[in-house]
Structures are given as C-alpha cells and as structure tokens.
Amino acid sequence: MSKVSLFSLPKISMKTWKVWRRDARVFMKTYKVNFVPPALEPILYLLALGFGLGLFVSQIDGVSYPVFIAPALLAISMMNAAFFECTYSSFVRMYYQKTFDAIIATPLNLDEVIFGELLWGATKSTIYGSIVLVVITAFGLASYPASLLIIPFSFLVGMLFSSIAMCFTALSPRIDSLNYPISLFITPMFLVSGTFFPISALPTIIQQFTYIGLPLVHVVDITRALTYGSFDFDLLLNLLWIVVVTVIITIISINLMKRRLIV
Amino acid sequence: MDAIVAENLLKKYDDLVAVNNVSFRIHESECFGFLGPNGAGKTTTMKMIQCVSPKTSGTLEVLGLDVSSKAREIKRNLGVAPQEVNLDPDLSVFENLVAYARFFDISKKEAAERAEQSIEFFQLQSKKDTLIDQLSGGMKRRLLLARSMINRPKILILDEPTVGLDPQARHLIWEQLSKLKTQGITIILTTHYMEEASELCDRIVIMDNGMILDEGRPSELIEKHLGGNIIETRDSDAVQKCLKKFSNDTKFEVAGDNVLISTSRPQEIMSTLMTDCGIVSTSVRPATLEDVFLKLTGRMLKE
C-alpha cells in the first residue's frame, strides 16, 4: 500500500479540542503529583546559576547575570514542558494505554487526535511558562507590560516543540529510544542557544548553524526581548522562523503518526 | 436491510495477505461471529469495519455507507469493545464513561445519565468511583462493553469480549449480551471460544489464513460437517480396519491416541464396532462447534 505523503494536509475539525479536553481532564486529576518538578527546576537554576555563578560574572550585554539568564530559563521551561509532553507522555498514551486507538473508534480521526495532543503540549508550555514568569517576576527580573506577551508566545513555542517531539514519538520503536533526541538534540541546543552565555561567544559558523537549524535560539531571543522590554527588527525574523517551521513540522508530525498507526 | 456488506474484501500488508477476498453479509439485529485461530484475519476484518484500517480493495459497506468515504458517520453508530484494554487508567469507572461519551458530542448531563445506566446494566455500581488499575480483568471487560454502549450504537463490535476471564465473569457477560440481542442491536463478535459462539451467535463464519472456510448457523455447520455425533475410541489397527468396512460417508479422524468418528448414525456404528470388531471402550457424544472448527482449520498449532 502506498505511504501517506509527509506533506499531505491533515483533516482537522473542531473535534480536535475534545482530545485536548481529555488530556486536560487527566492533568487536572493528577496535577498534584506532576506539577511541582517543572516549576521547581527553573528556580533551582536561577538560584544556582543566576545568583551563585552570577557573583563571578560582572555583566553580560549590559545587564546582570540573573537578568540575562531569566528569559533563557523561561524559554527552556516552555520547551521542556511541550517536548516531554509530546514525547514520553504521548508515547505512553499511544503505545501503552492505547488511548489513541480508543479515540479513533469514535467519530474523531487520527489527525484530530494528534493535533489535539499538540494543542495540549502547547498548553502545558503555556502553563509552565506562566509559572516561571511569576517566579522571575518575583525576583524582579521581568519588565512589564512587555513580559505579558510571553503568555501567548509560550503557546506558539509549545506548538513548535510539541510538533518536533511528535515526530520523534512517531519514529521511536520503543520508549527508551526517546532518550536519543533528548541527549543529542535538546541538551546541546539547551547549552548553545544564547542561554547561559551570549551566542556571540561562539565561532561565526556555529552561530550561523544555530540560527538556521536550532529552534531554541529564536525562542530565547524573543523571550529575552520581552523580559528586557526592548525590541528590534530581527525579532520579526525570529518570529517568522518559528511560525514557518511550526506549520511545516506540525503537518509532518501528523503524517508520520498516520504512517505509524494507520495500517 | 443488511447492516454490513463485504464483497471481495482484501487487506494486504507489504507482502502478507491478512484478509483474502472475503465476502459476507451481516443482517440487521443478528449476532454474527467470526471464528478462527490466531492470525486468521478476524481482527483485521473488524478494524476495516471500524474504519480504522483502510481496505486494500473490494467493497465494504456499513449501514449502507462506504467505509472509505463515510468513516465519521459510520463510527457515530458503532460501539467497539477492543481486544486490548484501552481504558484511561488515570480516571475512575464513571469518569471513563463520561469522558468517552464526550467524543460523541453527547452532552455532559446526558453522558452522566447514560454512564449511570451502563454501570448498572453491567453491574459495576460498587466500583463507580474506582480507578481502572484496581479493577479485576472481568470488570475491565465489562467496563469496555459499557463504554462501547455509551453512544447507543446500532452495531456493536466485540473483539474477543471474554478473553482471559473466569467462567463466572464470562457467563455474566454472555447474559448481558443476550439481553442486548433482544433489543435489536446488531452484534459482531470474534472469538475462539466455541462455546461462546454457540451460545450467542445466530450465524458464524469460520476463518483461517485470511479466508472464510464456511458460513452458517452453528447447528447447521455441525450437522453439515459432522452429522451431529462423535464417537470416540482408542486408535488401533483393528479400529482402523473395522472402520474401512463402512461406506464412504463415515468420516473419521485420528487425533492423538484417539479416533473420532463423526456420524449421524451413532447407534449403528457403535454396535458394529463392538459386536463385529470387538472394540469395547467407545463413547458417543453430540458433535460441537469445536469439532467443526478443528476439522476445518486443522489440529496444527497456529502461532
């Protein structure tokens, strides 16, 4: 039988929100056990790096070290929330709980199931992004009102990383295989994307590669502009990169899932 | 009208033919069983009917609608209880039903009412607020059935509904399914418990290697293939020689140490075996669907 094209347009109705509702319902039921770690981690980083290591760093780009890394921690939280949701959690629902099988036996189709999962991953990104925003605001590290835009932006960031994550989920033979994208993609990106040191410290060729190929750098740039409250034209290019890649990867992720599950 | 019509239905995976040009008709309000060993193509056929696995070729209509183009409309009227338990482990019994109803656009209030009714019908009242992990296998199966009824389906698809259950749990499910039959729901079930098929099904097909070997009412199939009775006796040269005396219509088969003779004239054959051939230890019993099944699909292990 012929394979589904990676670029065929998904058929999605408003029913996709029912999948989101299902995930949200389960989250609300279990949030007491899974809420704390993602909220705690950025605080630890902020204390250890911002206020610990920060003592030895005078200023970066004219701001103190905690001010410099606060938006990066925010960006990383948004990324991780979505990425972990649509890798490990989606894999468990797909493979172990057979939740997708259960839902496609109803009037919903697989496109709607996967897109609903992505919407939920993006929502998690917004939830954790907002929590970390509250934390860095409490430390006086975000300027307002610009920082309020981080909340809608975190949903877009969530869609970006959810869709990337869903591709890996579609291609992973086993849940353990998901360790590879974490250690070969997420961790290196987490270190070089202008997070803990300015990207200008990298060799030019690596800087260029980072801007072409790594999503996090664009997210960090925009988040940083929002917490600083200072904007320039390049941010539109960052935004354009994120939107275009999100749309393309979303379509690919749905088709990869169809290849895996519709047999 | 027929609830399901399949003509020359074919399903191929890469180089494996899972369902090989099968044709069948399932009438409205009947209970139709697909019997067959593992790998016979039963579940694949179910998945094509459910519109979750696309057919390779042939025609398949459910409630008069084409599975390839009308999946949503068809699925609205189907209830599916799958072979693998795919309940939501983080939700309770009641929440599982209500959450599932939402996928069918059933209002919250209506969903809660139907969930209550289903819980009662499948005798899960005491477990209403229990999480899935704490249910026994039989309760999970009953909850799957309750969930498959939540949209008041016209057709119920049950893939191995009592697999792995103890006799009590199995009989309880059979009782409830018999009640549903009287309400006019079309029930399609796959099973390899022959007793289950005899008990519930109006008509069955026996499948093997993706093909339908025969089709009919359980009693007709027994009559047709085995003549109604089975005589069992110890296998020996003497028995085999003795059986050769009978005309061709006396069919026998060697299974392990025994010879099974299928016949509609048990008295006559018994007395011949005992008086003419001196064989003393024989027994006669009514033929069952299991005998038909083994005859048609062979006694080799299917793995």
> Could you say how many structural domains of chain A there are in total?
1
Shape-level CATH architecture of the largest domain in chain B: 3-Layer(aba) Sandwich
Which structural category do the helix and sheet elements of chain A fall into? mainly alpha
Structural class of chain B: alpha/beta
Strand order of the largest sheet of chain B: 6-7-8-3-9-10
- N-to-C terminal Cα separation of chain A, in Å? 9 Å
Please state the CA-atom Rg of chain B, rounded to the nearest Å. Answer: 23 Å
Q: Terminal Cα separation of chain B, in Å?
A: 38 Å
**How much is the average pLDDT of chain B?**
89
Q: What sort of overall outline of chain B do the alpha carbons produce when their principal axes are compared?
A: elongated
**What share of the residues of chain B lie within helices?**
25-40%
CATH fold group of the largest domain in chain B: Rossmann fold
According to DSSP, the number of beta strands of chain A is 0
Please mark out the parts of chain B with pLDDT under 50 across 5 or more consecutive residues, or reply none: none
Q: Write down how many β-strands of chain B occur, each being a DSSP E stretch of 2 or more residues.
A: 14
